[in-house]
Design brief:
single chain, 306 residues, Quinone Oxidoreductase, Chain A, domain 1, Rossmann fold, 14 strands
Length: 306
Amino acid sequence: MSPPSKAVFYENHGPPDTVTKSIIQLPPVEIKANDVCVKMLASPINPSDINRIEGVYPVRPPVPAVGGYEGVGEVHSVGSAVQGISPGDLVMASPPSPGTWQTHVVKDKSFWHKLDRGTPVEYAATITVNPLTAFRMMEDYVDLKSGDSIVQNGATSMVGQCVIQLAKLRGIHTINIIRDRSGSDEAKEKLKKLGADQVYTEGQLDVKNVKSLLGDVPEPALGFNCVGGNASSLVLKFLRQGGTMVTYGGMAKKPVTVSTSSFIFKELSLKGFWLQKWLGPDKTEACRETIDYLLGLIREGKLKYK
């Protein structure tokens, strides 16, 4: 049997600060032959976690439910038929699955991916949703070559930081857009230290021709939008003829608007990215290979984020 588990629990969908106020103790769970019991060490809070609790995310567990989706832990005990995973091993839920906001999780061995023991816990806990999103968006839409460029809004986000560094490793330029706010100069400096070529606040792009700002950086073939509203329009302004904008979030909760001329004369393409479609059972092996690659970059000091 597993130890009792303390969990962030919600009985109904609604505002997270209202429906997740209770932390409950769950009873011990039987550990079957192929099960692995993991003592969770860290599990992040992603925007999609909030959406699941609110009941607006397309894929969500039935209520009542335990929150969380990705995370890392240490193996507490294993079932009698489990091989290749032992107590004390560092493992992560891969692909992610609901219920990681608790102290102990019992799932079939197939849910767990064994990691190098030296992997930093904070990175292992957060590697799937955001860094994997950055990696896949750079791979799946445009055949990027060294010397090409990408434009993105939400550049200070975890995805944005990963895009900058992954692009730099491939010799790809990045044009980065951030919100007008106090501390924007510090944010710009941080992104440039990560490898950003250009960083602008939205207010700085209130000019007739944003492409006049590019200098030696080529017009981008690919753009990433996680904000919506005016911030997405700024991404579109930078794109070259036939460019593609990929939307993977909508933090401003405002629609993406595109001018008719952008479609007719610039022949722009708009795409959407949803990581969930890349985390199906048929993609488990590819997902884990990519995660191992990204964690390798982290251990080498080539990828970092906060």
